[in-house]
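Hello,

Our lab assistant flagged a job as stuck in the queue for most of the afternoon. It eventually completed. Since we weren't sure the result was trustworthy after the delay, we are filing this so someone can double-check. Below is the sequence as submitted and the structure that was eventually returned. Let us know if re-running is recommended.
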Amino acid sequence: MRPFLNISLFFFIILFGCNPQKKETLNQFSAQVDTLVLKTNKAKGYGMLNYSVAYGIVTQDTADHREFPVIYPENLHDIKIASARIDTKPARYKRLKKNNSEYLPKFLVKNFPQNIDTANLPTTEENTINILLAKRDGKKVFVVDENNNQDFRDDSVRLLKNYDYKRPELIKCQYSIYNGSKLTKTSGWINTGGDPLMFSVAHHLESSFSIGNNTYKIEAVNGGPFFRFCFENPMLALVSQNGVQKDSVVTSEIIEKGEYLKLGDSFFRLENVSNDGSLVTLIKEKDISDKIGTQVGFMAPDFESRTIDGDSVRSEDFKGKYLLVANLTACGDREENYGYFKDLKQKYGSSFDIVGVENSRESLKQLIKKLSLDGKFIIAEDNPSMRKNYREDFSSRTCFLINPQGKIADKFELSAWKATLSKHFE
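-- returned structure --
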């Protein structure tokens, strides 16, 4: 019997040892799955969300730069150096800890360990992308430390141009970022230019996946207030379904963390995007009928505020009729922004109530007088319920149309008021 058992064991090992179990295919899920963990790819450019915020970065003389050693090219003159932080959380953590801030526990609850490893913080060199402004042959040039080695001799020297959002010349660069378990090397794209120097992150995330027989593609970017390389404030939209690609993405189709994405007949909550953007987690919600939020179709959050004239304005005052909460901002071309509001009010002021929301009291007063505006205006900073629910971004231009049933009927940027409101009132 022993030879027979040995032969049987031999064939058992051959059959099962040489045929490993089939692994689950990446980004393919059955219809019964409640949690989707999507692998993403980083793509060049701003994507279909077309979301970019440029900010100025300060330059300094090379003699004043002492944070870490840098090697400069020999053929450049009048060199100044600028540094853009990859992730602001390590510096924020150090500052809170140094000052023994009461906010530190709240910061750690929000970010540790998924977004920061307090025991292994990146060095300043690892957490920085450096740029030189200089002159060569009498012309202004700039150099990006593309391989992040603090040595500018092996990087391209480019002619300095104005910052260009519409037709940018994007630059690929390497950097290190915490991915939820360790600091890892990756790469992405930036857009920079101008003097003073302007800078923006110029890449987005893409993920194609399937649920049962249906295929989808999403795109994601990082929103404010920290427009860096990490994804602590993700914004996401569905851009393709079953092979049908959208031509564009409008504001009402973009969701943020905690909001819901409709995939087929199901709704999935955007639970998280990993700090480096490599993974997106969506969780299925069985019933959204009682959800409150500023997503289209959800019950609009209540608010109770006072206008700049001291009058009380409450959401319940508008029950049974349409209300537009319109965010105004003095950022950018402020007269253009307020001009949109004036034109909107002239055309639709008799069709629904309008509440204008601003953060700058001084700008609001100036432009009310200059453009002869009237109506109900609120300063968000003075009205917490309005600030929390309808004005998270300081320079928001987003408008919320609330229907007579108290639900969000539409959500759009102020500049898109004509195309959006005509769908509802014409």
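-- support follow-up --
The delay was a queue issue, not a problem with the job. The result is valid. The helical segments are 2-17, 89-98, 104-111, 334-348, 361-370, 384-390, 417-425. The chain is about 20% helix and 35% strand.
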